[in-house]
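Contributing new records

If you add data, match the layout below exactly. Sequence lines come first and carry their own label; structure lines follow with theirs. Keep one chain per record. Anything else will be rejected by the validation script.
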Amino acid sequence: MNLKKLFFGLLTILILFAPAATAAKTCTTYFTGVGCPHCAKADPVVLEDYPQDFNSLVVIEYEIYQKQSNAPLLYNFNSNYNSGLGVPALIFGEDNSLVGDRPILQKGEKSVSDHEGNACPTSIGKIKFDSLDLSKLEGYPKIWANKRVILGKPDNSSSSEVLKSLLFEENLVEELEKMNKTSKSPSSVPLSGKSVNFDNAVQIDGATLQWNGKGLEKQGNGTSATRPQGDYSRISPDLTLPKIVGLAAVDAVNPCALAVLSLMLISIITYNPKEKRNILLAGLAFVASVFVMYLFYGLVIVKSFQLIQALTSVRVMLYKALGVLAIVLGILNLKDFVHYKPGGFGTEMPKFLRPKVKKIISGITSPKGAFLVGAFVTLFLLPCTIGPYVIAGGVLSTLGLLKTLPALLLYNAIFVLPMLAITIIVYMGMSSIEDVSEWRENNIRYLHLIAGAIILGLGIAMVLGLV
């Protein structure tokens, strides 16, 4: 009896004090796109809530709108797991994926629970997280787990093992201090529709680990010699600004818009040549009308692109297609420089529309009329000005609709700037409208040359992935 008690006592001690077996990690891969409205609903749940609610969950995220080099992986995953080409997509394995915000929000939590211990779906097959080498993952992933995130990939396998252990390390700061690590400034991590901010960050070779709570006492300079792969802190506005300015400049030198303004000012001067004030007010009203209407058209264009963003097979190719469109428009403008013919396709107002526009404008007698007619005439301007604007709308479509507003305001301010300048020049008597019209006719080929060179260069850079 004493032996029996001793046996059960020893067994109890072993159970209580033996190291607990490490629970197998549950892993899933998530495809998303910053700017996708459906992803905006799913991202916070998958990337913030799930890693907090499930202690052993690891989410490998691939963002494909801002980081377009991740996009081909979606096709690879579809080939391996029949996961489809839509985003958001939460992939567990072959024929076992949730695609779209509704399925994820309705079934995602249960799916995570049902797939306890699931191996990580990768482009070469499923691999247990403990055996996964983060440095060999394709593309530019982010790894979410335990309310922490790894941005980018480590340089080697040993760093991969360190990062994986740190993701779930209870005494994280103490371990980092033992490694003699110093902290760096954390970067904002964009989701679709919002950003996630962390309190602390540390560099581990080519990757960055970020977390909240207690940080390291040793502070680095907040920068690293090389930018971590997959660091998404540079978001779209910084990247798109040169493109938007370039496209707006192309539209601004469009002879089509300048010709319509000239016709309008001639109509005002002919009706009452002594009222110079009317020239100024009518010109400003016309410019304001064009600005307001084109701002509206821009919002419609951006929204139209955003509606197709869930069709990822289309969205993946959209940026390249816009680059090709820019190249075509550039070539058409250069063609007009080499061999000019009025009413060129895609570069000027078609000749059959010109008599109608002239007839409408000839009735303008006041600033109010200039504003109303200007709003209507913008419809006739669209055939010769819409090309660069469509490209700009596609570039901006990865942002939320309200976030596109500053860029659209800038675009249209540049677009109407020459019209505004002509109005002021004529009003101040520095030049007559006849001189302006004659200058336009004499330099129309060079206007096409400038526009063609800008938009062709931009298009080539977009297709090659340089911008």
